[in-house]
Design a protein that fits this description.
Strand content: 25-35%
Number of domains: 2
Helix content: 25-40%
Number of strands: 6
Order of helices and strands: EEEHHHEEEHH
Structural class: alpha+beta
Largest sheet: 3 strands, antiparallel
């Protein structure tokens, strides 16, 4: 079982450590991904003159990268069209169900727009096809989604380390 090294320091976002005595490999590794582009670089203790100096070089490289390539906003991340999207609009989908009533089966269908609020909760707006028609319900769902995305201007950060880095460098206001 690997030994527990305790909580990671906050200032190591995007930085990992490789210590392999069998291969005499001791280095810090940077791995940052932005908009489908990946930066991966190693900082060897031997080349930089020790563990602390290699970490300083790795942090400097990481900081330079993060300044040049800031994280996507929540709106940019939410606008990525996923491979399983069939409506053509990210965050908008058609839902249909059949309910059995006394008069017989009744189809209930609607276009739904959804997004995540800054506090992490999911918001959903449904637009009935029966009430607005197929095109009208779809247009309303698209408009609701577009309106919600317009309010998302904070960075998309799922990592506490990145939020800490952004606050420390006053790069972007985080909520």
């Amino acid at each position: 079982m690997p030994e527990d090294k305790g909580p990671r320091p906050r200032n190591t976002y995007g930085i990992g450590r490789v210590d392999d005595d069998k291969k005499s490999m001791h280095r810090w590794v940077i791995h940052i991904e932005r908009k489908r582009r990946v930066w991966h670089r190693s900082f060897s203790d031997g080349v930089y003159g020790g563990k602390a100096k290699a970490l300083r070089a790795a942090r400097a490289f990481r900081d330079e990268l993060l300044v040049l390539h800031s994280p996507m906003t929540r709106a940019e991340n939410a606008s990525i069209r996923r491979s399983n999207n069939r409506s053509g609009v990210p965050g908008v989908f058609r839902q249909a169900s059949v309910e059995t009533t006394v008069a017989g089966p009744v189809e209930r269908a609607s276009w739904i727009a959804y997004w995540t609020t800054p506090d992490g909760k999911r918001s959903i707006r449904k637009f009935s096809i029966r009430k607005y028609g197929e095109k009208g319900a779809l247009d309303r769902a698209k408009a609701a989604r577009k309106s919600a995305l317009a309010e998302m201007d904070d960075p998309h950060t799922t990592s506490r380390g990145l939020r800490y880095w952004l606050r420390r460098h006053d790069a972007v206001s985080t909520k």
